[in-house]
Amino acid sequence: MPFPPLKFGHIPAAPAAVTPFVLLLVLPLLHGCAARQTTPEIERVDSVVVRKAERRLELIEDGQVRREYRIALGDQPVGHKMQEGDERTPEGEYVLDWRNPRSSYYKSIHVSYPNARDRAAARAMGVDPGGMIMIHGRPNWLTSARVAREYDDRDWTDGCIAVTNDEMDEIWRLVKDGTPIRILP
User: Fold this and answer.
1) CA-based diameter of the chain, in Å?
2) Is 10 among the domain residues?
3) Which of 173, 97, 110, 98 is nearest to 136 (CA)?
4) Does a structural domain hold residue 135?
5) In terms of residue numbers, what domain contains 124?
6) Is residue 30 part of a domain?
7) What is residue 13's predicted lDDT score, i.e. its pLDDT?
8) pTM of whole model > 0.70?
9) Active-site residue, 160 included
10) For residue 183, which of 119, 105, 118 has the smallest C-alpha distance?
């Protein structure tokens, strides 16, 4: 069947049999255009570093930063956590020692605060040092994507370290229990 002659400003429709054939030829070529992961896969995370002033969490492998995440902290982000309810994120050397897949926030990994030094300082001040500091995702009750994004641009926790849920999935997969964490001012 011959194609009708071309008219200026008119594009003829392709016969129905040609379209699937063309798609079969073009689709394999488009596969190579898919987005590729730009960061190398991590075999094991040796440690985690949190830089509070920069609002950044880093996953370290072989002494190199392999992943970085923007974080939210407690409502009083400056200074070391001293007592229950001060809404500060602790500073110092800790261990990520256990995890909770069913926490009130999207997954959570526990930071071993308070350590012996934190307990001694709190005892000297006559206060409870607090605890239950976690790395976690957004609140589970938060279902609106628009409202969830508002959480990304401000400090909102009671002293925990928060990331997006997608980031928490990646951290959950890459960081094993027993991994050291250093939280810097």
Assistant:
1) 94
2) no
3) 110
4) yes
5) 47-184
6) no
7) 53
8) yes
9) yes
10) 118
Distance of alpha carbon 97 from alpha carbon 181, whole angstroms: 10
With H, G, I as helix, E, B as strand and everything else as coil, classify residue 168.
helix
pLDDT at 22: 46
Candidates 93, 81, 50, 89; CA nearest to 180 is 93
33 is catalytic: no
Q: Are strands 134-136 and 161-162 parallel, antiparallel or unpaired?
A: parallel
pLDDT tens-place values along the chain, 185 residues long:
554 554 445 445 555 555 554 444 544 444 444 433 445 677 789 999 999 999 999 999 999 999 999 999 998 888 889 888 889 999 999 999 999 999 999 999 999 999 999 999 999 999 999 999 999 999 988 877 766 677 777 899 999 999 999 999 999 999 999 999 999 99
What whole-number distance in Å separates Cα of residue 113 and Cα of residue 91?
A: 9
User: In this structure, which amino acid lies at residue 61?
Assistant: E
Region of 70 (left: φ > 0; alpha: ψ -120 to 50; beta: rest) is beta
Domain count, the chain: 1
The CATH code of the domain that includes 134 is 2.40.440.10
- Collapsed DSSP state (helix, strand, coil) of residue 99: strand
**Does 60 fall in a domain?**
yes
Residue 20 token pair: 């699937």
* 3-state secondary structure (DSSP) of residue 150: helix
| Beta strands at 47-51 and 56-61: parallel, antiparallel or unpaired | antiparallel
Catalytic residue among 33, 80, 110, 136: 136
Per-residue tokens: 73: 């902290």
